[in-house]
Design a protein that fits this description.
Layout: H1 7-10, H2 15-24, H3 27-34, H4 36-62, H5 66-80, H6 84-107, H7 110-114, H8 131-160, H9 163-171, H10 176-206, H11 218-226, E1 229-231, E2 235-238, H12 242-272
Antiparallel strand pairs: 1-2
Helix pairs in contact: 3-11, 4-5, 4-8, 4-10, 5-8, 6-8, 8-10, 9-10, 10-12, 11-12
Amino acid sequence: MLETLPDWLSGLFSEDVRSSLAYITNGKHLAWYASIRFTLIAAIGGATVAVLFGLVGAALKQSRIMPFKLIGDFYTTIVRGVPDVLFILFFPLAFEQAVEYFLARSVCEPEVLAAATQWPPCEAAQWFLTTTDYLIMACVSLGIVYGAFAANVIHGAMQAVPKGQLEAAAAYGFTPRQVFWRFKVRQMWVYALPGLSNVWMLLLKATSLLSLLQIADIVQWAARLGSANYYSRVGLVHPDWRWKYYLVLFVFFIVMTMLSERFFAALQARASRGMSLAGSD
C-alpha cells in the first residue's frame, strides 16, 4: 500500500512511522476496514425491517378487531422479552434447519430418511449458507426484535396525535383507513422520532453480535488482529493488543452515535415543519 506513495511524500515520514503505516495498511487491516460494510448493512437493513414491523405491529395494536389486537399485543410483549442475542442465534438456525427439513423430504430417499442418524440425512439436503445469507437473516432477526420496540414507540406516538385533527378529517369525509394512513401515521412521526432514535441506537449496538453468525465483521477482525501474533521464523510479532483494537471500535461506535444524533435531529426538524404540537404555545 505504501509503495504507491510518491518518494517526496514517503520522505516526510520517519522509518518508525512508515513501518506503522505499512502495518495498518496491510491486507488483513484493509479487510478489517472493509468489514465495516457488514455493520452498516445490518444496521440499515435491520432498521428498515424494524420500521416495517413497527408500523404493522402498531396498526395491529390499534385495530378494533380483537384477534388482530391480540396478535399485536403478543408480538410487542413476547418479542421484547427475548434477549436479542438469543433471537439472533435462534432465528437463523431454526430457519436453516427448516429449509433442510423440507429439502430432505423432497430429495432424500425414503429409506435414507427412515434410517438417518445425522442431520441432514443426505448430502443433497445440505444447505451451505454464504455470508450474504447470514447477513440477510441477521437483518431480519434484528428487524423482528427491534420492530417490537418500534411498534410500542409508534403506538404511543399515534396516541399522542390530537384527536381533534382526526375528527376533523373524518368530518371532511375521509374514510377511517384514509384518516389512519394520511393523518394519523403522517403526524405521528414527530412524536415517534425521539423514541425511534433510541431504538436505532440499541440496534446499532446489537450489530456487534454479527460474528455469532459466522460473519467476519469488525468485532471478529479486531479480535483476530489484536490477538498475540507469533511466527516461528520471527518469534513474537506483537503481544495481546486486543484492547487497542477494541478501543478503535469504541471510538467507531461513538462516532456513529454522534452522526445518528445529528441525523435524527434533522429528521425531527423536518417532521415538525408546519405542525403545531399539542401543549405548545
